[in-house]
Amino acid sequence: MSYRLSLLDKSPIGKGETAYTALRRTIAYAQQAEALGYTRFWVAEHHNTAELASSSPEILIAALATATSTIRLGSGGVMLQHYSPYKIAENFNLLESLAPGRIDVGIGKAPGGLPLSTRALQAGRDPDRHPDFAQQLREFDAYLGAGSAERVEGLAATPAPHTQSERFLLGASVESAQLAAELGWQFVFARHLNGDDVVLASAISTYRNLVHRTPIVALAAIVDPDGGKARETASGFTPFRVTIPGGQSVTVGSEAQAAEYARQAGAVDYTIEKRKANVLAGDGHDIIAATDRLARQFGIEEFILDLFNPGDSRLVAIGLIASARDAAAAPQALSA
């Protein structure tokens, strides 16, 4: 196999657990990922979600940087629509200064929560003066050092690191691939959110034609030594996409969540679409076989795995995947 494997974590809080326990597990997870040779370890941003402890990726990345030494660390991703591009640039310049050469800036367009948390995060902002996402991203890129055209004259995002963070736009559309290419950013296609491989192929070819690079692909997976058990669990995952006229379409984990999103948005006229689940499931060898197929089909050079395993089983799961990866990469003995 010629592709790299990386990981995304959301710091899930198990039944009866505290956020402290979940976050300590995320740190242990990153340390084990580093020992097993994974390329990156990213943390997500979710709001007003009792089951997840990952509401502020930048703070968690700082903790991970002190607990690891070689693995790249990043956000998967910071939801820029809620924030000042200048402040997020300061945060990542500070992280890059703390851990030079190891920080990935991952930016997403999604809200990372339902409308109640979005309104709270954007409180006090005049919606009529709110820039669109592409404009925000260009401004953010400028404050990271891409140029001065989008900056206020005389204003810099300090501290100025001696090394540059890698920059990634997270998306699930051809339009996101085009925006990433325009800015010279790397692109991550969220196949775990959009399982339409026709769209994936189009996004890959668009990005590759523009910048002569291949996007990273994010995949959901559940892993168990008993592959059948993992497949049975995965069969229960079904994403739903809720679309509100004039608003952003959002993919959530259940039909009830989709309806709640519409309710919080005050929408009466909305649609809910059942989406195809795209969760890789099985033992470690099954996961590597699946990534092998996708790598061959689309020419992918790196996958980011979002494991749906609960609790400490995530640490077991990445060991199973790494063992299968190493076995697949080992030279095969020639028969006599």
Q: Secondary-structure blueprint of this entry?
A:
Blueprint: E1 4-9, H1 19-36, E2 40-43, H2 57-67, E3 72-75, E4 78-79, H3 85-98, E5 103-108, H4 115-121, H5 133-146, E6 166-171, H6 174-183, E7 186-190, H7 197-211, E8 216-223, H8 227-234, E9 240-243, E10 250-252, H9 255-264, E11 271-274, E12 279-282, H10 284-298, E13 302-307, H11 313-329
Parallel strand pairs: 1-2, 1-13, 2-3, 3-5, 4-5, 5-6, 6-7, 7-8, 8-12, 8-13
Antiparallel strand pairs: 9-10, 9-11
Helix pairs in contact: 1-2, 1-11, 2-3, 3-5, 6-7, 10-11
Structure described in brief:
This protein has helices at residues 19-36, 57-67, 85-98, 115-121, 133-146, 174-183, 197-211, 227-234, 255-264, 284-298, 313-329, and strands spanning 4-9, 40-43, 72-75, 78-79, 103-108, 166-171, 186-190, 216-223, 240-243, 250-252, 271-274, 279-282, 302-307.
